[in-house]
Amino acid sequence: MKSKQTMRIEEIDIPLFIKEKYNHFPTLTPIQNKAVEGGLLKEKSQLICAPTASGKTLVATMAISKALEKNRKALYIVPLKALANEKFKEYVSVLEGTSYKVTKAVGDIDSPSHYLGQYNIIVLTTEKLDSLLRHKVQWLHEVSCVVIDEIHLLNDPSRGPTLEIILTLLKSLINPQIVGLSATIGNPQELADWLEADLIKDDWRPVELKQGILLGKKVEFYSK
Question: Which pTM was predicted?
Answer without folding.
Answer: 0.89
